[in-house]
Design a protein that fits this description.
Layout (H helix, E strand, L loop, with lengths): L6 E5 L6 H10 L2 E15 L2 E15 L2
Length: 63
Amino acid sequence: MSAKKKTVWFEVEEGEGITDCLQRLADAGYSVAGRKEEPIFEEVDGQYIPIRQVIKFKGVLSE
């Protein structure tokens, strides 16, 4: 039997809504304990341009 990790980060996938990600987190047996956003940049002509935002939810194993 494999033990689940106590905390796992769930990333909102491309084409997936936040609600879908939260449902996936809950279906896996976790509760939301945090959120973070990270910008993704692309270099264009020596300038860094933000191209999208990555949203992650911290899941804590529900007891």
